C-alpha cells in the first residue's frame, strides 16, 4: 500500500478538518494533491506533529483534527501517545504511516522494520481508546471513515511501502504556511459560531 494513494483517497475528506503533517515525504505528497489553507506542513521538527495536533485539538474541540505522521517521528516522541490517552481529545485522529523507514532523512530502517516494535500495540498500551492496524486500501478507508465519524480519540497505524515523492519543494516557507493555517483555523471557528 502506498502512502500517496492513501492520502489521495482521503484528500476530499480533509477540506473541513484541521490537518497537521510531519515533515518530508508525507507533507510533500499531501501538498502535491493541492494545498489547502487548513493544512500545516510541519517542517524541520521531526516527532512533533502529534504534539502540535493534540494541542490544537484541545484548543479547538469543535473541529476535527487530523495528524498525518510517520513511524520514525512517532518513535522519536512515544510519550505523546500516553499524553494523548491521558487528555483524550475526542476530536483527534492520528494516522501513522508506518513504512519501516526514516525515508525523509536518509532511508534508514526504523524499529518497526522487522516487527520488533509494533506501534499499534504501543498505542493500545498507552491507553488510546480506538486503535486500528491496517495494511490494505480497503481497511485503511474503513478505519479512516470510522475515525472521522467517531467522537473519540483514534489512532490508525497504516503499513505502507517505503516509497516517497520524486521531488521536494513547496511554493511557500514555514512562516507563510503558519500564517495561512492560523487564519484558516480562525475562520473555521467563526464558521461554527
Key phrases:
single chain; 193 residues; alpha/beta; Rossmann fold; six-stranded parallel beta sheet; two-stranded antiparallel ribbon; 8 helices
Strand order of the largest sheet: 2-1-3-4-8-7
Per DSSP, the total helix count is 8
**DSSP, total strands:** 8
**CATH homologous superfamily classification:** Thiamin diphosphate (ThDP)-binding fold, Pyr/PP domains
**CATH first level:** Alpha Beta
The H/E string reads HEHEHEHHEEEHEHEH
How much is the average pLDDT?
A: 92
The residue fraction in helices comes out at 40-55%
Share in β-strands: 15-25%
Just name the CATH architecture.
3-Layer(aba) Sandwich
Descriptive report:
The chain is an alpha/beta fold and 193 residues long. It starts with a helix and ends with a helix. The protein is globular. The protein has a 6-stranded parallel beta sheet with strand order 2-1-3-4-8-7, sandwiched between helices. The chain has one domain (3-192): Thiamin diphosphate (ThDP)-binding fold, Pyr/PP domains (Rossmann fold), CATH 3.40.50.970. The chain is built from 8 helices and 8 strands. The protein has helices at 3-10, 25-33, 49-59, 71-76, 79-87, 119-126, 137-149, 174-192, and strands at residues 18-21, 39-41, 65-70, 92-98, 101-102, 108-109, 130-134, 154-159.
Amino acid at each position: 500500500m502506498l502512502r500517496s494513494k492513501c492520502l489521495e483517497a482521503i484528500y476530499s475528506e480533509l477540506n473541513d478538518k484541521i490537518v497537521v503533517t510531519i515533515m518530508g515525504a508525507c507533507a510533500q505528497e499531501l501538498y502535491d494533491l493541492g494545498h489547502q489553507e487548513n493544512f500545516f506542513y510541519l517542517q524541520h521538527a521531526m516527532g512533533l506533529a502529534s504534539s502540535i495536533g493534540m494541542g490544537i485539538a484541545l484548543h479547538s474541540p469543535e473541529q476535527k483534527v487530523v495528524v498525518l505522521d510517520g513511524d520514525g517521528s512517532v518513535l522519536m516522541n512515544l510519550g505523546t501517545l500516553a499524553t494523548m490517552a491521558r487528555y483524550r481529545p475526542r476530536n483527534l485522529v492520528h494516522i501513522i504511516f508506518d513504512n519501516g523507514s526514516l525515508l525523509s532523512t536518509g532511508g534508514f530502517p526504523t524499529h518497526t522494520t522487522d516487527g520488533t516494535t509494533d506501534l499499534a500495540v504501543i498505542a493500545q498500551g498507552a491507553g488510546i481508546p480506538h486503535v486500528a492496524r491496517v495494511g490494505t486500501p480497503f481497511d485503511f478507508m474503513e478505519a479512516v471513515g470510522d475515525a472521522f465519524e467517531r467522537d473519540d480519540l483514534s489512532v490508525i497505524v497504516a503499513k505502507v511501502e517505503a516509497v516517497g515523492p520524486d521531488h521536494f519543494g513547496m511554493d511557500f516557507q514555514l512562516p507563510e504556511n503558519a500564517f495561512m493555517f492560523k487564519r484558516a483555523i480562525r475562520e473555521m471557528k467563526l464558521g461554527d459560531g
